[in-house]
Amino acid sequence: MRALLVDRSAPGGLHLGTTADPVPAPHQALVRVTATSLNAGEVRFGIANAPDGAVLGWDAAGVVERAAADGTGPAAGTPVVTLAPDGAWAELRAVDTGLIGTVPPGADLGAISTVPVAGASALRALHRLGPILGRRVLVTGATGGVGGYAVQLARLGGASVVATTGDPERHGESLRALGADEVRADPADLADQVDGIVDMVGGGQLVAAYERLAKGGTLVSVGHSTDGGENFPFGAFFGNEGRHDRSITAFYLLDCPDLAPDLGWLARAVAAGRLDPQISWRGGWDGAADAIAALLERRLHGKAVLDIG
């Protein structure tokens, strides 16, 4: 099969070549990939740390070529969206059936390919906040793929959404179109407290966001776009000063049990137009180097989609 293979001597660290077809385990389906979406983490760290010849990629949408031998998952011919720790940047991938969501017939599989990491991370983060109807939710780093989905999903869940971005003047209109009620440059700019936080930035912004968290609230750390650590000031956790009963949590998406229903629900929402996939770059996989450069240089806000083949 053809695939984008790690080759750090090539532009973007990848070259289009051939490699052996994957051999599915009994609980895996073989999927013919139609499109994949890129994530900043995999292009920033995955390519740098993988051996030459490896096939990377987390997100892919396509059609089931061969159903799982154990009888689980969708039948051959079903359009699907898939998540796995590797293998998306190729014509074929073998995927655990618990990480496969079914897609409505006729849906744009390029748009659907944005769902796995960005959409599912946002959805699971919001689940961690508990009921959000009528509550105030802050999303930091809202112009990224996960942040954009988090803004939309929080709004669909009935929350009043505050979004932060490094350039509110440039991105304010688009974030309000996604569902943000307020757009700020920094969590420290917030006058009022929030009931829940989905943080995509880390570092000082996570610390500042936690300072705005109301009693009983939860901050979910999802992304780490900054290189700095989290240094809380002395007294940040003193219970006798009203700073108690607030929590910080994190999760690893691939450790979440049975993501298939989430992936299918998100795919249907994108296909129906209820969620905007926020595609800001799309092209053939021979243009991967351009998309990767845009991601690494932070020129791309939203998702980059490669159409395979």
Automatic annotation (TrEMBL):
It comes from the Bacteria. Residues 9-306 form the Enoyl reductase (ER) domain. One of its GO terms (molecular function) is oxidoreductase activity. SUPFAM superfamilies: GroES-like, NAD(P)-binding Rossmann-fold domains. CDD domains: MDR4. Signal peptide: none annotated. InterPro entries: ADH-like_C, ADH-like_N, ER, GroES-like_sf, Lipid_raft_assoc_Zn_ADH, NAD(P)-bd_dom_sf. PANTHER family: PROTEIN AST1-RELATED. This is NADPH:quinone reductase-like Zn-dependent oxidoreductase. It comes from Pseudonocardia kunmingensis.
